[in-house]
C-alpha cells in the first residue's frame, strides 16, 4: 500500500498541476499552451475570437457557423474588404482594415473546417 501511495503522490506532483498539463506543449510558440490555444497551429498571442466560438480569428473563416468555410462565408468576407470588421480579420491586429492577407487566409481555408483549436479539440468544428 505504501508503494501505491508513493506512486499517487508522484503522479499528483507531475500531472496534478493544471498549469503543467495545459501548457507543456506550445506548437506554434505563441506562449499559449496547445490545450488552451484557440488557434493551436497559428501564432496568435492576442487570442482574438470575435464570434466567441472558441476558434480564434486567425484560424476561423467560418462566419456563418456552418462548420466549414464555404460560399456563404465568401459573401461575408467580400463585404468586409477594406473595412474594419474584426470578424473577417485573420491577421493580428484584428482591428485594422480587412486586406489581401486576410483574403489569402480565407482562400487557403476554403472547403475546410475552422481551427484547430485547443478548447474545441475532439469536436468536429468550432461550435
Ligand atoms: Ca500556442
Ligand atoms: Ca496560437
Ligand atoms: Ca471564432
Ligand atoms: Ca461557413
Shape: globular
Name the structural class. mainly alpha
Task: Name the ligand types.
Answer: calcium ion
CATH superfamily: Dockerin domain
| Count of discrete alpha- or pi-helical segments spanning 4 or more residues | 4
Supply the number of structural domains: 1
CATH topology label: Type 1 dockerin domain
Poorly predicted residue ranges: 6-14, 16-21
User: Nearest-angstrom radius of gyration?
Assistant: 18 Å
Spell out the helices and strands N to C: HHHH
Distance between the termini: 45 Å
Query: Helical percent range?
Result: 25-40%
Please, what is the average pLDDT? 87
CATH class: Mainly Alpha
- Proportion of residues in β-strands: under 5%
What is the correct CATH architecture? Orthogonal Bundle
- Give the biggest sheet: none
Count of strand segments: 0
Amino acid at each position: 500500500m505504501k508503494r501505491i501511495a508513493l506512486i499517487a503522490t508522484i503522479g499528483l506532483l507531475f500531472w496534478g498541476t493544471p498549469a503543467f498539463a495545459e501548457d507543456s506543449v506550445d506548437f506554434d510558440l505563441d506562449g499559449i499552451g496547445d490545450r488552451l490555444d484557440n488557434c493551436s497551429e497559428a501564432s496568435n498571442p492576442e487570442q482574438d475570437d470575435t464570434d466567441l466560438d472558441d476558434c480564434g480569428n486567425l484560424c476561423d473563416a467560418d462566419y456563418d457557423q456552418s462548420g466549414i468555410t464555404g460560399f456563404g462565408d465568401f459573401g461575408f468576407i467580400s463585404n468586409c474588404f477594406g473595412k474594419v470588421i474584426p470578424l473577417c480579420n485573420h491577421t493580428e491586429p484584428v482591428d485594422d482594415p480587412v486586406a489581401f492577407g486576410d483574403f489569402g487566409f480565407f482562400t487557403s481555408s476554403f472547403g475546410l473546417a475552422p481551427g484547430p483549436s485547443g478548447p474545441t479539440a475532439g469536436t468536429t468544428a468550432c461550435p
